[in-house]
Amino acid sequence: MKNLSLFFPITNKRHHFVLQPIVYLVILLGLISCSYPVKVEATSDNSEVSTGFTYALNFPENQVDTSLNYYRLMMTPGQEQEITITLSNPGTDAITVELQLNGAKTNGSGGIEWNNDTIDNDASLMFPFEDIVSGPASVDLAGGETKEVTFSIKMPETSFDGIITGGLRLMKAGQTDNVDETNGSQVINQYAYAISIVLQENDIELTPDMQYNSAYAGQSNYRNTIFVNLSNVVATFLNDLTIEAQISSAGSSEVLYEAKTTGMRMAPNSLIDFPISMNGDRMVPGTYTAHVLATSGDMRWEWTEEFEITEGEAQEFNERDVGLEQDTTINWGVVASLVGAFFGFVLLLFVIVRWVRRKKKKKDSIKKRKMNQKKKRSPK
User: Is the pLDDT of residue 54 over 60?
Assistant: First the structure.
């Protein structure tokens, strides 16, 4: 079994930046050609200690290849079918197994995500996996109990070429109950199985095609980053992908930032937010040019597009960048302006009060004079 360490940035209640390593023991079930998911052999005898349960796949008649350790089914338009997985609890304590179905996605490093529901679907995806395959959110297993879990498949009425693919994650509930907090970090060990499910209606091989969507400012692990958003718009895997990206100011040939990653893969009808680090620089508002080259074997895609970083974006990301020294020096020009404005206000207030008092005094003097004159005229 392969022990994978995944790191996600989180913020604690005091807003200090920490890293949360979430260690997954993931069984990626599938040994197929480079255009399909990669298989990691499952060994239930060794894994049950970590996961707390074992599983077995029950292949239906339309399983394309029963030697595979994942579901790859030949379907027809509008077909409805049920598939089952057998779960066993070899222990004596009752457990709950959480089940989650997610479509295959592509992360920013060019890896296939079978169990990530935080990545958006691409606009080219006509038939989301989650709309086609459904099942229970969890299963309770008593000590020593074995249970068959059923999942329902309802294919689109419209026929299609290529594949619809996703993953089923099986994880024992309660693994986040005991959190080890040491030196400001939270460490959570989670172990899960991930089972691939591939649905197809024919054996037609499709050629991948890429599309440029946008470039935009953002952050990766709380550090200023520029992202290029690209899509694989065809219902097939894109393998051995290399992306090179260069960022320059609009109208300039000087490369400010660049990145290159090889050996990537993209899921069918998925997008990738390819990151270009700003190498610890402050973000400066303005218009920039992104030059992007993507290659896979003999296939080649190239784009040169402009994008903008606004003042609001630059200020927001610079304030949040943990690698930047925030400017805490006193702006004496601003201080002088504020002090000047304050004294100006005080002076104006003094003038107004003095004028009001003078006016009142004058009015009282006139009133007193009139009263004295009236007394002199009155008969004794």
Answer: yes
- Residue 380 amino acid letter: K
**Run of H or E residues at 363:** helix 332-377
Asked whether 310 and 288 are in contact (CB, 8 A), the reply is no
Q: Which comes out higher in pLDDT, residue 163 or 117? A: 163
Q: Both tokens of residue 207?
A: 């050629």
- Beta pairing, strands 133-134 & 54-58: unpaired
Residue 14 in tokens: 């005091």
Pairing of the two strands 138-141 and 95-103: antiparallel
| DSSP for 155-210, written as a single string | --SS--SSEEEEEEEEEETTTTSS-EEETTEEEEE--EEEEEEEEES--PPPPP-E
Give the containing element (helix H, strand E) for 333.
helix 332-377
Chain-centre distance for alpha carbon 117: 9
Residue found under tokens 């990691």: 40
H/E segment holding residue 315: helix 311-320
Average pLDDT over residues 242-263: 97
Residue type, 102: N
The whole-angstrom separation of Cα 362 and Cα 293 is 84
Whole-angstrom Cα distance, residue 359 to residue 364?
9
Residue carrying structure tokens 């958003």: 229
Cα of first residue to Cα of last residue in the chain, in angstroms, is 122
> 329 falls in which pLDDT band (50, 70, 90)?
low
Report which residue type is found at 169: R
**CA 170 – CA 192 distance, rounded (Å):** 6
Q: Model-level pTM?
A: 0.72
Cβ contact 110:261 at 8 Å: yes
Tokens of 314: 């630059």
Element (H or E) spanning 132, and its range? helix 129-132
Stretch 110-133: mean pLDDT? 93
